[in-house]
Write a structure and sequence with these properties.
The complex is a heterodimer of chains A (98) and B (175). Chain A is mainly alpha-helical and 98 residues long. Chain A has helices spanning 3-20, 27-51, 58-85. Chain B contains six helices and two strands; from the N terminus they run ααααββαα. Chain B folds into two domains: 3-127, no CATH class; 134-174, no CATH class. Chain B has helices at 2-20, 25-45, 49-73, 86-106, 137-143, 150-171, and strands at 111-113, 116-118. In chain B, helix 1 runs antiparallel to helix 4. The chains are: A mainly alpha (98), B mainly alpha (175).
């Protein structure tokens, strides 16, 4: 596999680990989610260009549309949390704690 | 040319490590913007000027601006940067170590991974780069979204329309 693809997959794995590990802020995990989507877009675009298959250039564009919808819904949820608790700290989300 | 793409690829991963080590979101957003710009550079190194422009306009100019405003709303008094907290610095150094190991593995000769051979920087060069191509691939591919991929277009447009209503109703707490 060409080296550049392995580099971008490494970037995807780093963002995935960042999404799954919470620190204090919730929006940091949303940022890591956006990073995952950016790495997927870069990978798709490079693959479409290097294989010279023109029709598959649609795939990164559609991926970006879905990413925009997902970011919008994620930010709306963050806004509700910020309205209820004042900040978006993860330690505030403890209503289901036993 | 391949050295430029290689260095941009390495800095791309370093930018990813920068926001994945979870400093305060202000610095994370800045790191993601830098990585987006470098990703555009990598895509343009393979001849995709339309897709690089899409990254800058749609991704950085649309989605990251919205993120930037939201971060400015939900920020704290003393933001943590990479040097002010041991945890963030440790995560950054671990990620940097992983990338350095990747580079050292790349430069140590020919390797075989799942049937593909890689080693050295020859793969970063795109053949036939000199001169103009008769078909601009990514422009015509993006334009084919409106002709061959019209169902993609219809579904994507409908999804964007519905997600506006979703965001409005979720923010009004009518889940």
């Amino acid at each position: 596999m060409p080296y550049i693809y392995i580099n971008i997959i490494l970037a995807f794995v780093i963002s995935l680990i960042g999404t799954l590990i919470y620190r204090s802020h919730l929006i940091s995990s949303l940022l890591c989610l956006e990073g995952m989507i950016l790495s997927l877009f870069t990978l798709n675009a490079l693959l479409s260009l290097n294989i010279n298959f023109t029709l598959s250039t649609i795939v990164p564009l559609i991926l970006l549309v879905f990413a925009a919808c997902e970011a919008a819904v994620g930010l709306a949820l963050l806004i509700i949390i910020s309205n209820t608790y004042g900040l978006d700290y993860v330690q505030n989300l403890n209503l289901l704690q036993c | 040319m391949m050295y430029i793409v290689f260095i941009m690829g390495v800095l791309y991963v370093v930018g990813f490590i920068g926001f994945s080590s979870k400093p305060s979101p202000v610095y994370g957003g800045m790191s993601l913007v830098v990585s987006g710009g470098l990703g555009c550079g990598i895509i343009m190194g393979s001849g995709g000027s339309f897709l690089g422009l899409v990254v800058f306009l749609v991704y950085l100019g649309g989605m990251m601006v919205v993120f930037g405003y939201t971060i400015a709303m939900a920020t704290e008094e003393y933001p943590e940067t990479w040097g002010s907290n041991v945890v963030v610095l440790g995560a950054f150094l671990v990620g940097l170590l992983m990338e350095v190991f990747m580079i050292m593995w790349l430069f140590s000769g020919e390797h075989e991974l799942m049937g593909f051979y890689f080693g050295g920087l020859e793969d970063l060069m795109v053949l036939g780069e000199e001169g103009f191509e008769y078909v601009r691939e990514d422009y015509s591919g993006g334009a084919s979204l409106y002709s061959y991929g019209f169902w993609f277009l219809a579904m994507a447009g409908w999804m964007l329309f519905v997600s506006i209503f979703i965001a409005i109703e979720v923010t009004r707490k009518r889940y």
